[in-house]
Amino acid sequence: MRVAVAGGTGLVGKMVVRGLEQAGHHAVVLSRANGVDLTTGQGLVERLHGCDAIIDVTNQNTINKKAAVEFFGAVTSHLLEAGVQAGVGHIVTLSIVGVDEVDLGYYFGKRKQEELVSKGPLPWTILRATQFHEFPEPLLDGRSPVVVVPKMLSRPVAAADVAAELVKLVAQPAGGYVRPIAGPEELRMSDMAKRTARARGTHKLVLPVRLPGRVGKAMIGGALLPQGPFTKATRTFAEHIAELDVHRGATR
């Protein structure tokens, strides 16, 4: 198969590209470096010609509702329209477990994405995933000695396991909403951040903060956990931390 990967230069995207190639598929990365602007649609139809499917793992780092809705609305609309013109037969989109239960600004953008895909012109599959093992790492990258982490309960999953599931799904018929994927254990995000900080050798203070109102209550109460059957990934957070320790030791 020839599979286009939107967001193919990001964390999960790179893993998807590698997984596609290992499975014998041809990955086509949709990026500005390849003449494609997903926010405007420029160069998209041409890049999609000959592709059998699209895997969309695009991301926008924002907590602003308007910015998130505009980004995911534009990118998804362009992917669907160009996909039809190019004769693409399937779109597989990565989303988030609990996205319709928690009213975060970013999640409104993901809801818009899901709405467009599920009501759109292409056969579709949507895979929802819990927070990645890597979720705390960008929070620790700032210069402040204090790292504010939202109080939330999650069942974190390895990004590599999510990428592998997307590669598997793209080779199957469109399945609509498929079983979500989550990790093997429930963890508090603040604990994950503290363990990540220790593994990275940083002495920053991790400060757990409950978000106000219904959002905070939902995040603490398990709204971001799968509510029914789900695909249980096997890689644990402890294994992820061990890898961080090994990497730190190798770079000393």
Total count of strands: 12
Task: Give the amount of beta strand, in percent.
Answer: 15-25%
Strand order of the largest sheet: 2-1-3-4-5-8
How many distinct folded domains? 1
Describe the sheet with the most strands. Answer: 6 strands, parallel
Decide which structural class fits the backbone. Answer: alpha/beta
Low-confidence runs of at least 5 consecutive residues:
none
* CATH class descriptor name: Alpha Beta
Report helical residue fraction: 25-40%
CATH topology: Rossmann fold
CATH superfamily: NAD(P)-binding Rossmann-like Domain
Rg estimate, integer Å: 18 Å
What is the H-and-E element order?
EHEHEHEHEEEHEEEHEHEH
The rounded distance between the terminal residues' Cα atoms is 42 Å
Number of helices: 8
Q: How would you describe the shape?
A: globular
Q: What's the CATH architecture?
A: 3-Layer(aba) Sandwich
Mean pLDDT over all positions: 94
Give a description of the structure.
By secondary structure, the chain is of the alpha/beta class. It has one domain (2-250): 3-Layer(aba) Sandwich (Rossmann fold), CATH 3.40.50. 40% of the residues lie in helices and 18% in strands. The protein contains eight helices and twelve strands. It has helices at 11-22, 44-48, 65-86, 105-118, 159-170, 189-200, 213-221, 237-250, and strands at residues 2-6, 26-30, 53-56, 91-96, 124-129, 146-150, 153-154, 176-177, 181-182, 187-188, 205-209, 231-232. The strands form four sheets. The protein has a six-stranded parallel β-sheet, sandwiched between helices.
